[in-house]
Write a structure and sequence with these properties.
The protein is an alpha+beta fold. The protein is built from ten helices and four strands. The chain has one domain: Glutaredoxin, CATH 3.40.30. A four-stranded mixed sheet has the order 2-1-3-4. β1, α1 and β2 form a beta-alpha-beta unit. The longest helix is centred in the first third of the chain and has 18 residues.
């Protein structure tokens, strides 16, 4: 039986795009289940601000994503405005069957080709670009909306706090920069080593006032 991994993503994240473009580095026997989620709902649940809500962090995040794309040799062009409303684009990945190919096609339209998808015109253009023009109507189906809510709720229940995140046997691997750590854990019992176990169970020394 191949190892099956849930991959939680939101198309609003440039790092999720950079990670999916590196899936060719994953072991051949690995089965990835794409799980679209609403990042905003996850951040609200945990009481977190998005990077774009802190001006200095927003600038750094955009520079870092561009740097990583150039470093990795991945074609990259940001959409004309960010953050944007990703809901319909997320639903589209579900309406198209939820395959990695469908998810990758949506990501590439946004982050490789630099297209906006939040306006009615932009979303219609996305549906045409991925070869699914009926997506304009399909994303309004109750079953599609329910699936996105279900994936988001499931992510929160697992402790997911950001995207992209791999979940394997209950362990979370958050961020494009955790890809190497994830790969090592597929190949070894690194998480079971004494020092990893020690730091994973450290007590809280002090809590910020008001938290």
């Amino acid at each position: 039986m191949p190892d099956t991994i849930d991959w939680f993503f939101d198309v609003v994240s440039p790092f999720a795009y950079l990670q999916i473009e590196q899936f060719d580095k994953l072991p051949a026997g690995l089965a990835i289940r794409p799980r679209p989620v609403v990042l905003g709902a996850i951040l609200n649940h945990w009481g977190q601000k998005a990077p774009a809500e802190i001006d200095a962090k927003r600038t750094f995040t955009y520079r870092h994503a561009l740097f990583r794309a150039q470093q990795l040799g991945i074609a990259y062009r940001m959409p004309p405005a960010h953050p944007f409303n990703p809901i319909k684009a997320l639903r589209l990945t579900i309406a198209m069957g939820g395959s990695l190919d469908a998810v990758r096609a949506v990501f590439r339209h946004i982050w490789r080709d630099g297209q906006e998808v939040a306006s009615p015109e932009g979303f219609a253009a996305l549906c045409e670009a991925v070869g699914f023009p009926e997506g304009v109507a399909a994303v309004e189906q109750p079953a599609v909306k329910d699936a996105l809510r279900h994936h988001t709720d499931a992510a929160i229940a697992l402790g997911v706090f950001g995207v992209p995140t791999f979940v394997r046997n209950g362990d979370l691997f958050w961020g494009e920069d955790a890809t190497a750590m994830f790969l090592q854990c597929l190949e070894s019992d690194w998480l079971a080593t004494p020092e990893v176990q020690r730091v994973s169970a450290l007590p809280v020394g002090v809590r910020r006032s008001g938290s």
